[in-house]
């Protein structure tokens, strides 16, 4: 959004912004220029509904989100305090009805986010001109809507969104292969080996299998699989291989670009929120809040980081872990000597006076994502101190119950929940299944089943893109299962040999 | 910059209405909506209007929580998993359904479209006018009880400031006669076409809760439709076993009597009610009767003469719904048909075997356009 359209902040807030920006920079935070706009609640809800981008393409789900947010606000169930967009410059929105102390809190918080966006390695490949890019996407999609009609485009978007999390979140960092998705360039059509016409019952004799295979191998010395290796970027695979016309391919590529833009935010939720909360609370308590405001600050701050009903608040986990790391590195409470010490009292009083805490947390915010953050820094002491537990579903009582407080299990569960953003890992293993151009996906089963009704609906949408039968192999009830959709009916095939290599 | 959000919201609502139409039969028959009815809005659960994705089942996954508690202590009910941080990082709100508010008028419109119900041509005196006073203006004279205090105060304040009488240190504002402002009204005329629905139900022992649920569901849709066709809609409720009485809505659905059935008693109460309170010249009258069709044999003749003489001549519609009970279905429907003929102008009948039959039954009842 052009800056000229932003209403300037009231003078008092402007002054505070300058002050807080200086304070943040003084602490070593490194951020893009940050532009604040103060907006009324319904406008903030509008922007939030559009994922932070008012210029985004039109789609009904934003309208639904807007209704939900509006209702929640209207009934006083929730309100958005702030919204900050990873962009250069960063855009941040303040809720007009907030009190002064909240505005200061939010601004301090925002600078934490902006620093994180700029410095965290996982954002290293995101588009910093996303505001422009989103506007561009919006314009393209609107044009398609004008050309072919609102409903076809919107329904096609629905289908694309169904697989928007089927991307390879690590691919910006590891180039596994060239990802050109020009239509045709990578199109792969293996030459069909010659077959003689024959009645079915004569076929094994007229076209002996061994001979057929040998011929095939000769004609086609490097039998190419499609994809050659399992492809986790299902969206890319479809872009390259699905029979899409020009506007459809463009829409799919737009949805894919946006998915890649949002992925790092999902990967670093705990850290990003923890980091911002760490800084707002540090600055507020020591430098910003007046004596009169401190109680109100404490109240609102504790509201943000509260854990309710046993659920874990990512803000809280993040801020506490950063504080824990800072404290441990200040005291030198890490490394072999410390780990080997099993005297509880000695560990408690451990202090080598290294004072490395500040440097360490800045390093951590640069290189880690939530998964490696938890893996590297969640300790037994921390889990005990914060009373973390692992819960699981008990089908007998139909309740989620506390299963254990044992450290390894708690940590393992947390890591499992964070792996692949908490979503199933799925890859295309065959784009020419049964040699009939069917699409065969595989779910990497990790002990948790797919939700079948969602899987079926997702297959339906996938079929709209692929237009040939689609399958997903997974495990249900501890049995190999393939769920398929052929355009007519969903079928669930259990227990059969479902080796995708068996290409007939 | 114009925001698209209103357009998105409109699209969302269109889709919701589409879903509603598609599933109307289900909503009609399941009676889901009645508990969700506000004054003018019905809150309707729309199944999974989210984008389907491959996701983990609710009941397999675990998570990490925080707080006190022993192992084995429940932390959340199935189907509503606690958000572990994995969840928190992903999209909010992946509920299986969401509730959307639809106005009763909108609902009636959808019902009318889907059931292809003809619009009702109200009978009776179309020139019947109702006068209503609308307080919509201000005058400088009027009764003290209608004095507009705020306006009076403001006028006095203005006068005092303009004449220099007002002092900020002593902010006394004293209205004089010319400051006084009074509310005033104008009379608006609008045609008032009134209708009354008289519900009659057999509450004898053979009518079980299941049957009453069916009656209740039908009544909801009848109310919704007729309510959309008339400006004023009254409802009356009559229950009967061997004797009949007029009751309120709650009692209507929650009474269960043992004993026999005498439909004539209900017709008598109904006819008296029409004569006393709803002069047919001024009212569009609808009688909906629900019964399992059991009646004391010797009562039928008496009932039919009441119906034929005192009710049918006055009503737009007399609808009889025979709800099948576990004790079978009675003979009343057959008798009724043979007594008044299959195609009586004001009578419409329907046999309702089970909940699934409600949809067609409503269509039958309201399809006459009366």
Which features would summarize this protein structure in a list?
heterodimer; A: 504 residues; alpha+beta; 3 domains; five-stranded mixed sheet; 20 helices; 10 strands; 49% helix; globular; B: 370 residues; alpha/beta; Rossmann fold; six-stranded mixed sheet; two-stranded antiparallel ribbon; 11 helices; 12 strands; UPF0229 (chain B)
Explain this structure.
The complex is a heterodimer of chains A (504) and B (370). Chain A has three domains: 1-171 and 225-265, no CATH class; 306-419, no CATH class; 424-497, no CATH class. Chain A contains 20 helices and ten strands. In chain A, helix 1 packs across helix 4, helix 5 (130-148) crosses helix 6 and helix 11 (269-288) crosses helix 13. Chain A is an alpha+beta fold. Chain A has helices at 11-26, 41-49, 60-74, 100-119, 130-148, 150-162, 203-206, 209-219, 234-241, 246-267, 269-288, 294-304, 314-331, 335-340, 344-348, 357-367, 370-377, 380-385, 407-418, 452-466; strands spanning 34-39, 82-85, 90-95, 388-394, 399-404, 426-433, 438-443, 470-476, 479-485, 490-494. Helix content of chain A is 49%, strand content 12%. Chain B is of the alpha/beta class. Helix content of chain B is 35%, strand content 24%. Chain B contains eleven helices and twelve strands. In chain B, the strands form three sheets. Chain B has a six-stranded mixed sheet with strand order 9-8-7-10-11-12, with helices on both faces. In chain B, strands 1-4 form a two-stranded antiparallel sheet. Chain B has a two-stranded antiparallel sheet with strand order 5-6. In chain B, helix 6 (209-229) links the parallel strand 7 (194-202) and strand 8 (232-240). Mean pLDDT of chain B is 81; it is low at 79-95. The chains are: A alpha+beta (504), B alpha/beta (370). Chains A and B meet through helix 3, helix 6, helix 13, strand 4 and strand 5 of A and helix 1, strand 2, strand 3 and helix 3 of B. Chain B: This is DUF444 family protein.
